[in-house]
Amino acid sequence: MAIVKLDQLGKTYGKVVAVSDVNMTIGDGEFMVLLGPSGCGKSTTLRMIAGLENITEGELSIDGQRMNAVPAKNRDIAMVFQSYALYPHMSVRDNLGFGLKRRQTDKAVVRKRVDEVAASIGLTEYLDRKPHALSGGQRQRVALGRAIVRDPKVFLFDEPLSNLDAALRVSTRAELVRLHRELKATMIYVTHDQVEAMTMGDRVCIMNNGKVAQIGSPMEVYLNPASTFVASFLGNPPMNLVPATTGEGVVESGSGRIAQNGFQPGRKLVLGLRPEDLCPTDKVEDAVVSGRVTSLESLGAETLVHIDTGGTKPVILRGGRNIPAQLDQTLHLTCDPAMARYFDAETGVAIIPGEQQ
Domain 229-351 falls in which CATH fold? Predict the structure, then answer.
């Protein structure tokens, strides 16, 4: 397949900087997810890789070949968009084989390839239908199949599941993971959906304001966010971020404390606590944070408890369905010190206790 390298890639529209200084290498056969909020530059980055946007600065290479000036049609990539972009007057079979026919591939080869791909993604019985006679999920599978038929070096996906309902998103997501495993293809996938990123990607590139905020495996970026932005963006609910100050062997949160010997006293920090890492305690002296329960959200398998600790935002505890919490009750929450994360109060950059910053 292909190794895709982005070296200080950038895109400007006049004076507006859309993407700046993007550096990453996507390995052969890797599934890389570009994740971030709307307007963060993830789709623009994907379109530069595809050749649909001119590159303002930096260099893009595929398998060591510079691609900046190579037309999109000559990059040997296939792209699946949010819209299905199917030809309405063509059957599923003709839609699937259109790219090969345009390349004047032998008819027998086209038919064989289309039949193989249709069987792999469950479209064999729909080959003679037109797109209007298909469901949304089936149309998306045709769009995926059209890309797979070409057997390109790189697959690019621009939020391909966002038009599907919740159940179809889950099943199609699993289908994509299976296809990646079977094809062993290099895939780059753009989404704003954290669940898609966590469940599909070998690695996740989180972007913000046109720049890379962090790259790592899904669990690496979840457990060790590089900044308060990543911590607050990844997770539902996100990581609790509590203003704190260092003391002698502790970090004071204002409504509690946590043991930590890695800082000089008197430093202002932001203490990061994942909702699932907190648990109630009867010992006030063990509390990392304490406060009044203001809201209970029962989600069936779990309950989210919102606690007013006196800060600008409530601290959220993720507990079991039978967690003993009531409105207006005062809760004291503790946490394993190893699961706490720390960020500089001014820059928002993650700090490792014991390291000089």
Answer: OB fold (Dihydrolipoamide Acetyltransferase, E2P) (2.40.50)
